[in-house]
Design brief:
Length: 481
């Protein structure tokens, strides 16, 4: 298939790095070809696959909402489809490898259906070298758009459908805030609510600030209106989203911070409020006090530490040291009894020594996390860490990774054991994947629980007595009141 490439914008990492102090534009969507696309899309089918973090999942919901508005219908039948969108993640190499595999599998489907639009979006295409590679390797793809271009989706699909050219529209920019975008949520009792986009932290290993633009907060009242509407629709749980939720409001002239936002949302009475992710650098005592004060703010904090060693933290550009982190944990634990702490840890940062790694293990011993995500460092082209010398073999990194997981699991299992005999409020999610007579859901502190039940439980908060614990899940039975 020979297709001309029409480049509207191409990514540029130098531009992606810029940060100014201007407040961001609040925009609503405007697409020239909305009505034209409506005529072409009516009754057509789309398929979307999303990789990566909750920011991408929330973007998927926006994309689904937009497509539904012009008449597209979602399908899981990939053989019978008019539009395929692959929403990508670039945070580690294995995230990218999955996408390459996925596009490879789509080649045949694309060949059999020349009228289809095959689109790639998300964080991967924000990197110029990866985009070059994708364009060269996968001629079947006829639309690329970035994280800042979702709001122009109607025009982009229309162009791809009508010009028969490959459309590339990825502009590296600091970004705007769009309000009033349609949305088709994946769930009708649990919702993600964006509060701040982008990231200004530039941790030296991380690609996210380059793919997502600068930190820009949504207006206080726009967020609260969304929460109010979710409450009205019967949602049981909301999760405030941001790469750093604690930085909320710093870029606005509204005089509201994350603590104010949590407090106002809590007063609205949604049964469960969560938030992710918290950067230890921006976490104030005021926020801790608000979390402690309201029963419907879940007593769970995801507080990525990345490393327990000060030299590595410095090289990572994390802006805090071990002592600051441990003091913060101490204050949180003192003010919030029973707090569940979770974290992210990177093993094998360039030239990390055995002693430096051991500091991470001793930090785990001190904090005793209830859950953790662990990663082997993956160099990201364009980031400062990717240029650092690294003499540590992959084998050593893998061994350390296993050691870390083993250490974390001691505390995770011990914590799980303390649940046996207790009664927990569980928000039920689905029929269990391994046993169709069981349902699965999460406790207030985010522990996965399986217990006998059927689909009538889904979306309900029920009382469950815990009878058995495993490292990563609990087993229980419903309590009849
Ligand atoms: N904004 C959030 C999450 C960012 S990405 C935060 O700062 O906590 C999620 C996690 O991926 C990070 O916390 C980090 O542990 C991990 N990560 C990011 N870049 C990575 C890389 N290059 N290699 C390995 N892990 C990485
Ligand atoms: Fe990446 Fe650091 Fe920003 Fe998190 S805070 S998204 S790890 S740069
Ligand atoms: Fe991945 Fe982009 Fe999220 S790189 S982790 S999808 S912000």
């Amino acid at each position: 298939m020979i297709m001309k490439t029409k480049i509207l914008h191409y990514p540029d990492l130098q531009k992606a790095k810029l940060r100014d102090s201007k407040s961001s534009n609040i925009l609503s969507i405007k697409n020239e070809h909305f009505d034209d696309l409506k005529k072409l899309a009516n009754g057509k089918k789309f398929y979307i696959k999303t990789y990566g973090c909750q920011a991408n999942v929330r973007d998927e919901e926006t994309i689904k909402g937009m497509l539904t508005q012009v008449g597209y219908e979602e399908t899981n039948d990939i053989k019978n489809v008019d539009l395929i969108i692959i929403n990508t993640c670039a945070v580690r190499e294995n995230a990218e490898d999955k996408v390459y595999g996925e596009i490879g599998n789509l080649k045949k489907i694309r060949k059999e259906n020349p009228d289809m639009v095959l689109a790639i979006c998300g964080c991967m295409v924000e990197q110029p070298e990866i985009l070059d590679f994708l364009i060269k390797t996968f001629p079947e793809v006829n639309l690329y758009f970035g994280t800042h271009e979702i709001s122009y989706l109607y025009d982009l699909i229309y162009l791809a459908l009508t010009t028969r050219e490959r459309i590339v529209n990825i502009e590296s920019k600091q970004g705007d805030v769009f309000e009033g975008l349609p949305s088709k949520r994946n769930n009708n009792y649990k919702a993600f609510v964006n509060i701040i986009y982008g990231c200004n932290k530039f941790c030296t290993y991380c690609i996210v600030p380059y793919t997502r633009g600068k930190e820009r907060s949504r207006r206080f009242n726009d967020i609260l209106d969304e929460v109010r509407e979710l409450k009205k629709q019967g949602y049981k749980e909301i999760t405030f989203l941001g790469q750093n939720v604690n930085a909320y409001g710093k870029d606005l002239n509204e005089n509201h911070d994350f603590a104010d936002l949590l407090e106002e949302a809590a007063k609205m009475g949604i049964p469960r409020i969560r938030f992710t992710t918290s950067h230890p650098w921006d976490f104030s005592s005021k926020m801790i006090d608000v979390i402690a004060k309201y029963d419907n703010i879940m007593k769970c904090i995801h507080l990525p530490v990345q490393s327990g060693n000060n030299q590595i933290l410095k090289l990572m550009g994390r802006r805090y040291d071990r002592e600051h982190y441990l003091n913060l944990v101490k204050e949180m634990r003192a003010k919030i009894p029973g707090l569940a702490l979770s974290t992210d840890i990177i093993v094998g940062f360039p030239n990390e020594t055995e002693e430096e790694f051991n500091d991470t293990l001793t930090l785990v011993d001190e904090v005793k996390y209830e859950s953790a995500f662990t990663f082997i460092y993956s160099p990201r082209r364009g980031t400062p860490a990717a240029k650092m010398e690294d003499n540590i073999s992959y084998k050593t990194k893998s061994e350390r990774f296993q050691k870390l997981v083993d250490r974390l699991e001691i505390y995770i299992s011990k914590d799980a054991e303390t649940y046996v005999g207790t009664i927990q409020n569980v928000l039920v999610d689905c029929i269990s994947k391994t046993d169709n007579k069981m349902v699965s859901g999460y406790t207030e502190k985010n522990k996965l629980v399986h217990f006998p039940g059927d689909e009538t439980f889904i979306g309900q908060i029920v009382k469950v007595k815990i009878t058995e614990s495993h490292t990563y899940s609990l087993i229980g039975e419903i309590v009849h009141e």
